[in-house]
Amino acid sequence: MSQVDKQLDTLKSEIEQEIPNDITVTDVKYEGPELVVYTRDPKRFAGDGDLIRRLASKLRKRITVRPDPSALSPPARAEEAVRKVIPEEAGVTDLDFHEDTGEVVIEAQKPGMVIGRRGSTLREITQEVGWTPEVVRTPPIESSTVSNVRGFLKNEREERRDILERVGRQIHREEMSDDEWVRITTLGCCREVGRAAFILSTPETRILIDCGDKPGAEGEVPYLQVPEALGAGAATIDAVILTHAHLDHSALLPLLFKYGYDGPIYTTEPTRDLMGLLTLDYLDVAAKDGRTPPYESSQVREAIKHTIPLEYGDVTDIAPDVKLTFHNAGHILGSSVTHFHIGDGLYNVAFSGDIHYEDTRLFNGAVNDFPRVETLVLESTYGGRDDYQTDQEDSEEALKEVINETYEQGGKVLIPAFAVGRSQEIMLVLEEAMREGEIPQMPVHLDGMIWEATAIHTTYPEYLRDDLRDRIFHDDENPFLADQFNHIDAGEDERQEVADGDQCIIISTSGMIEGGPIMSWLRHIGPDPDSNLVFVGYQAQGTLGRRIQNGWDEIPVDGWGGGGRGDTLTLQMGTEVVDGFSGHADRQGLENFVKTMNPRPEKVLCVHGDERSVQDLSSALYHDYNMRTFAPKNLETFRFK
């Protein structure tokens, strides 16, 4: 009998000692980080609302209780009973019964009403029918991504359970080493923006944090081939952590499965969906550009299948010697500051990912409240000594001023933006400005993946700022459903019609003008001196967006909107830069993130910024807070303890 099997037998005995004699436990298994308890008496478990909580506290495990198949009501009878228990106002749109696990997935417009106060309605459902309810939200805006991901995971349930059982046994395996050390190896995004990737390793465990590409630098990928990474084989990686879905952090995760990785990816649920959306589009753009994609769509599906979603604040075992906790990063939907507790109080490391420290219209500001952090790996995108962004209110006024001026001269406003994050932020500003009469009512056309990304935002309102979440819960107040928003879905003909029409605002991908429908819009509107191109987000070095921002007016438009190879376009439209809408903290925000940590970290690694930015921030943190700081290069290894 293996050590894990002995451990499960011991846990089963401990559970049986804690529960009433009339409750039978038929099996105990690990599925990922959770301990799953099977019982013939799910109704009795549900009858005691504190029983599972008491067991979880005593065993220090995340516990899920599932019914033994013999305890289940037939699905047809169960559905009728479940619908009677759930209030009609909850808006149940689908019930899906899974007899292999005894779970019923309930899709509803208002999940909170299905859950009930402190889970009371869920317990009532189990008491009535024996089935274990799982609740998901019906997207207020139909999302093909959410629908496809849910459908795919439903079809792959059996294989996914096998994956989770294997991962669970790996997490709870016996520790093999008595050594105590922690190392971080930098594989990318050091003294540069993009291709984020790090290895966090202990004698027991190797964890990859992020695996992205580098915007504007085709072919520059993280140093995955080195022995510290995949050079020793992809199977030597125990877990992958994804801080958020932007491609400079996520683009190459599916590549791991091409190389033979078969382990878990930990991230939040919205990040999982956005990763699927953005990586599939990444493949599509590569094919349109005539480049060989680095992986296939089947590997994107493998990444989704291997994802274990976690919620903010949940402390989760991901290895015998590592606990992981996600916290809101305030950057984009589902973005996370990741905290690792290593060993039995041995060491604590936090990776900021990309953060925004102050509240925005979309998100609450980044969380920096941890019991302990000895080392912080901190993004430095705007870490330069002069990188102070305009106040958000002033930024919004500047944007409205540009829109009003452009409208009066009969032109159009073209805003290149990331599909995820900045587009939704700008949508909220425009919706309020039109509602308050601060800018004229006019169509706002959304091109590229923006509408689909917006639909995903409305599926997960619990990840949004409190007041925005409340508005989305009421369809008549949902700002993303405002009449002025128009999804461009007919391609070039619709773009031509918009270009020939009256004043309007166009928000289009890609945000750094590196391909995508923005190239077509430049061909349509670029020659119009009455129109304006407005930059609202970071333009990385080497991108066409940065070049235009720096004054280029002759730009290549190969193949876009009818352009042939070698074609160029002379931009005659105006160019404006409106700071303050970035999803990144500025210099002050980064310093405040560190300053307000209590206790502060002993060491800070400044990464994800150009050379000047990381060195400026590293120097400032050293002088102001007397902590050890570093501005590492790629392929450096830091050993702690």
UniProtKB/TrEMBL annotation:
Residues 181-385 are annotated as: Metallo-beta-lactamase N-terminus. Zn(2+) 2 binds at residues 248-249, 354, 608. GO terms for molecular function: DNA binding; RNA binding; RNA endonuclease activity; RNA exonuclease activity; zinc ion binding. Residues 5-72 are annotated as: KHa. Pfam families: Beta-Casp, KH_2, KH_TffA, Lactamase_B, RMMBL. Residues 73-140 are annotated as: KHb. Residues 583-641 are annotated as: Metallo-beta-lactamase C-terminus. The keyword DNA repair does not apply. Residues 194-411 form the Metallo-beta-lactamase domain. One of its GO terms (biological process) is DNA-templated transcription termination. SUPFAM superfamilies: Metallo-hydrolase/oxidoreductase, Prokaryotic type KH domain (KH-domain type II). InterPro entries: aCPSF1 (IPR019975), Beta_Casp (IPR022712), KH_dom (IPR004087), KH_dom-like_a/b (IPR015946), KH_dom_type_2 (IPR004044), KH_sf_prok-type (IPR009019), MBL (IPR050698), Metallo-B-lactamas (IPR001279). Its cofactor is Zn(2+). PROSITE patterns: KH_TYPE_1. Binds 2 Zn(2+) ions, which are required for nuclease activity. Its EC number is 3.1.-.-. It comes from the Archaea. Residues 423-548 form the Beta-Casp domain. Zn(2+) 1 binds at residues 244, 246, 331, 354. PANTHER family: CLEAVAGE AND POLYADENYLATION SPECIFICITY FACTOR (PTHR11203:SF51), CLEAVAGE AND POLYADENYLATION SPECIFICITY FACTOR FAMILY MEMBER (PTHR11203). Homodimer. Interacts with RNA polymerase (RNAP), interacts with the Spt4-Spt5 complex. Belongs to the metallo-beta-lactamase superfamily. RNA-metabolizing metallo-beta-lactamase-like family. FttA subfamily. Terminates transcription on the whole genome. Termination is linked to FttA-mediated RNA cleavage and does not require NTP hydrolysis. Cleaves endonucleolytically at the RNA exit channel of RNA polymerase (RNAP); the 5'-3' exonuclease activity of this protein degrades the nascent RNA released from RNAP. This is Transcription termination factor FttA. The lineage of its organism: Archaea, Methanobacteriati, Methanobacteriota, Stenosarchaea group, Halobacteria.
